[in-house]
User: Fold this.
Amino acid sequence: MQKPNDLLESVLNEIEKRIKEDINADFLADNAGFSSIHLQRLFKFAFNQSLGAYIRSRKLTASLESLFNTDFKIVSIALEYGFEYEQSYVRSFKREFGVTPGIIRKTGQIVKVTPPLNLHDATLFENCIIFNPEIVMVPRFHVIGREHQVPCNEAINHVHKLIKYFWENERNKITNVSEPDVYIGLIRSRDIDADYNLYLPSIQVNTLKNIPEGFEGYTLNPSLYAKFRYIGQHNYLEINHDKIINIYSTIKKFFICEYDRDYCLFNGTYFVKVYGLSYDENFCQIEWFVPIKKKDIDDEKC
Assistant:
């Protein structure tokens, strides 16, 4: 199996190489020896846009060269870039750029284009990728789970066992679930010298009604987070100490190095979202949400 960065780079390169051909997710998946469903899910997770929409945007952007530099008819340009009909090209073009190809050719209007994607804004380790974070406002949401005290010196082994047991034995007892295929793990803030953390294996729900006996509900209020996306060539439960250290080092680097000096860590609730525990995944996909706050002018340390 290809490494996640090799797979994504090969897909991006193939799109550019075949920009004038009738390429789609099925073709790219077959070419990479990969499932089309998994490829589309992985691409969306990595780049925050669908594979189909990206291919269409790149084709439309590339077609501008023919539109401005040749006298080809619109229908010829449409066919040149793999659109079956002129009208489908015109509709997609207007949706992408806000004007029709005929008008943009006549007026020479400047438009914003979609450049090729790349993995430059990511940290690459052996068999995994950590993308530079996005600053996001997470709205209020509710989870239900069962909280545990996890010894700090044995956190990875304990957490893996708790996740596996919750996912296989406890989550089906929870009703009114809003994201049934997404596992959420909450880490409650504690004193830095504490010898254990509070960890809540959970799943997101619409309301905190009907909490099963022995479980507890928890509400996270709207807050700013730095969201780090991780893709690894392994099952989630195979994540090891070295990979965790790499992830935490990348998160720490964001706040003390060149990435972003406008935000600082905040003493709140950390949480992770794990995708793919309910189906056979070729790659582990995780989002780390680290609580942050905007730095004040007077803040030297935060």
Summary: The first strand starts at residue 122 and ends at 125. Residues 51-69 form the longest helix (19 residues). The radius of gyration is 23 Å. The mean pLDDT is 87.
